[in-house]
Structures are given as C-alpha cells and as structure tokens.
C-alpha cells in the first residue's frame, strides 16, 4: 500500500493544508459543520464500490444484500428522527433532492413560488441561472423591508394572483422561524403543493429547536451536512401523503435524475441519523441556538445591524449597507484574521451578489468544536474589532492580533486532533 504523500505529493499537501486550515480557523459559514470521525470513516468503506440502482429489495444488480441493510437503516432512522412515514435517502446532495421534487410534482412551464434568492432563498428555488429558474415560471416572495421578516400578506396576495402549482418554504439565509402552518394555508387556498426545503435548519428540527415542517408540508427536502452534521448529501421526506405520491418521488430520484446511489454516503447517513437520535444531539442543537443568540447580542451592542433584529436559529445576516465598505471587503478582512464567513446580499441590497452589503454567520461548526457562550462572546467581539478597523484604520494590526487569538482559541478546541 503506497501512502498518498509518496504517490501524489501535491494532493497530499492540499489535504494536509486543509486539515490545518480547519483546525486553526474559526468556521462561521452557516451551512458548514464538522462530521464525526465515524461519519468520516464510513464514507471510506467498501460500499463505494457497489452499484445498487433501484431500491432495497428491488435492485437492478445482484449482490445488494449488504447495501440494502445500510439503506434500510438510514431510511428507518431518518423517519424516526423527523416523525414521518416516507424517506428517500438517495439524493446525492440538496440540489438533487430539490430537482427530484420539481420532476415528480410539476411540469416544465408551471408557475412555482419560491423565496427570492436575494432575500434568503436558494438557487434551486427559482434562480434564473438554475434549472428551476430556466424551466419554470418563477414568482418570488420576500421580506418586509421594514422588519426584515417574511411578508405573509404579500405572499398570499401574490399566490392568489399568480396561482402557483407549488409553493416553496425554506431558505439559505433567514434567521427567524417560518410559519409553516400559515404557508400551508396559503398553498391550500390556491391548490398548490407545499414543499419545504429545510436544509439549513434540519438539525434544529431533529432536536425540537425549530418547528418541524412535516405535519404541514406535502414534501420536505434537506441536505444532510449542515446543522444535521452528517455526510455531504440530500434526503426527501413526507408524511401521510400515500403510496402513489411516494412512488412518484422515488422514481423522480431514480431513474428520473440519478443513476447508482452513493452507498458509502448512504451508510454514513445511517450513522449520522443514529448520532442525531442521541440525547447529546439535542444538547448540541440547543447550544447552537444559544451561541447564535449570544453572537447577535454582542454584534448589536457594538452597533452592528442584524437583519430582522436578531436570530431564532443557527445563523444571522449582518447588514453593512450603511458602512463605507462592502460585504466582500468584510469577508476578506475576516479571512485575514482566520475567521471564515461569507459575504451575502441583504434585503434590497444596492450592490451586486459578488460584492454585497452583508455578511452571513452561523454557529453550527464552532459549537461542534466545543465553543460555548464565553467563546462565542469573545469571538463576536473579535469579529467586531475586525469590522471596526475597516472604518477606523489599523486593519493589518487588528487582523494579526485577532488571528493570534483565534488560533489560540482553536487550539484549545480541536476538531479532530
Ligand atoms: N437548499 C438549501 C436551502 C440550501 O441552503 C442548500 C445549500 O446551500 C441547498 C439546498 C443545496 O444543497 P447542496 O449544496 O448539497 O446541493
């Protein structure tokens, strides 16, 4: 067996550098997390070699008896986790789960209503450059510019006017609870399918820290690698919709948009779902929310605006639209201080999506590595120091001081080492 460093020094170097980066930088990208060592290890299993087109017990290849065990475990566990009666664990990622929902439940050209990407939606909810925006007539809904909250009256007005075939709940950047019952009522008024993409908050939902959309939605999708802390992947869930509906969803995934499922990832999903069913996972998610609240409070004390005025979940958007610098500038300055976040549009952002006037931060990753209230208070303070310096000067000095503090804090809370 030839070690990677000998066989491919370039790649081995990149992996080693990435290990160091993940250990020494603070990760505030709201969609990221650190999978457990077990979840990491299972992805390296021999299941990666197996073709298993079809579903457990009905495969197009022989030799599937062992991968069937893995897929059944993943399916049963995720159903228990979210209290539902249908699950498809095969989507390769969140975007594929979403593509399967479109394929199963709509026809190209249909009117579909989703949250405006510039106001917190996801690409697959109808962005013009995505398949969803190219093949469907998308009508966006968004936020009340005054409050930064979802404007349900406006959503209802648009729905009644445009009569969408499907209404999409879910988001990539929204720090409040969504009213699933209210959205279902709007969908029912116009006879639309109500689909929730809970990718960002799935871990919180599993732990009872965010409202579960399953009692309200016809169908729910998610990624497995964000707050849920599993391997990179997707799932589709539903409750009480009946076998015909579930068959449509299954055949949209395979043979609709995918070939062979990634059985090593499905096995890792099974392990992640088992972890998420443990009491420790609830404790973790409670801490994620408490840490986000703490960071929001520090930012506000220091004079920074949070879109919607705070957070009820794992993330928040810092509104920099009244600052002399951009979201991109802030992103770069924070990176220099080893704080990884991402620039993000704020509602009615005057700047382009490449520049933006906001920064999105989230606490799932730092909480996994053991940061609590004390560490998050410190961290939010340093983040403000870096942003302050963009206005007041001495950026380089502040960056180097914060970088040292960040590395020291990170070393006290190792991820894998
Ligand atoms: N849905 C939402 C709400 C997301 O935020 C994301 C990822 O950012 C996705 C779907 C897409 O997931 P993936 O990157 O796994 O395709």
UniProtKB/TrEMBL annotation:
PROSITE patterns, per database record: SHMT
Could you confirm whether the keyword Transferase appears in this record? yes
Q: Where in the cell is it found?
A: Cytoplasm
Major localization class: cytoplasm
Q: Name one GO biological process term.
A: tetrahydrofolate interconversion
Q: Which cofactors does the annotated protein need, by name?
A: pyridoxal 5'-phosphate
**Could you tell me one molecular function GO term of this UniProt entry?**
methyltransferase activity
Which keywords does the record carry? Amino-acid biosynthesis, Cytoplasm, Methyltransferase, One-carbon metabolism, Pyridoxal phosphate, Transferase
Gene Ontology cellular-component terms listed: cytosol
The yes or no answer to whether the keyword Cytoplasm is present is: yes
Per the UniProt entry, the Enzyme Commission number(s) are 2.1.2.1
Q: Which Gene3D superfamilies match?
A: Aspartate Aminotransferase, domain 1, Type I PLP-dependent aspartate aminotransferase-like (Major domain)
Specify the pathway: One-carbon metabolism; tetrahydrofolate interconversion; Amino-acid biosynthesis; glycine biosynthesis; glycine from L-serine: step 1/1
Reactions catalysed: (6R)-5,10-methylene-5,6,7,8-tetrahydrofolate + glycine + H2O = (6S)-5,6,7,8-tetrahydrofolate + L-serine
Membership in a protein family: Belongs to the SHMT family.
| Purpose | Catalyzes the reversible interconversion of serine and glycine with tetrahydrofolate (THF) serving as the one-carbon carrier. This reaction serves as the major source of one-carbon groups required for the biosynthesis of purines, thymidylate, methionine, and other important biomolecules. Also exhibits THF-independent aldolase activity toward beta-hydroxyamino acids, producing glycine and aldehydes, via a retro-aldol mechanism.
Q: Would you tell me the protein name for this molecule?
A: Serine hydroxymethyltransferase
Species for this entry: Vreelandella nigrificans
